[in-house]
Design brief:
CATH superfamily: START domain
CATH architecture: 2-Layer Sandwich
Distance between the termini: 14 Å
Strand order of the largest sheet: 1-7-6-5-4-3-2
Largest sheet: 7 strands, antiparallel
Number of strands: 7
CATH topology: Alpha-D-Glucose-1,6-Bisphosphate, Chain A, domain 4
Number of domains: 1
Order of helices and strands: EHEEEEEE
Strand content: over 45%
CATH class: Alpha Beta
Structural class: mainly beta
Radius of gyration: 14 Å
């Protein structure tokens, strides 16, 4: 199982960074390999991905969501993956975004 840990600092308040991440259907605009995301309800999402020519579709469940602090998820079918995004206010207009995810690609 591959694990990815990434951190970035962005020049926006924590609420702006968090709100962008909760616009799940906009993921294809800034995430390589994500072709589409459909939000089914408050906690269920359907992903279509194409990574290195390997197309997958899967459902994911939001496990925990704390405004301006945390979003965690796990797939419920298809390729197994899970992770979390943590948001840390660095000052009034700067936020640390920390992503940790793990998963298997299905070929």
């Amino acid at each position: 199982m591959a694990t990815v840990n990434r951190s970035i600092e962005v020049d926006v308040p924590v609420s702006v960074a968090y709100n962008q991440w909760t616009q799940f259907e906009s993921f294809p605009e800034f995430m390589d390999g994500v072709e589409a995301v459909e939000q089914i309800d408050d906690t269920a999402l359907h992903f279509t991905t194409n990574i290195s020519g390997i197309k997958n579709e899967f459902n994911a469940q939001i496990l925990d969501q704390v405004p301006d602090a945390l979003i965690s998820w796990a797939s419920t079918d298809g390729p197994r993956n899970s992770g979390e995004v943590r948001f840390e206010p660095l000052d009034d207009n700067r936020t640390g975004v920390n992503v940790k995810s793990s998963g298997n690609r299905r070929h």
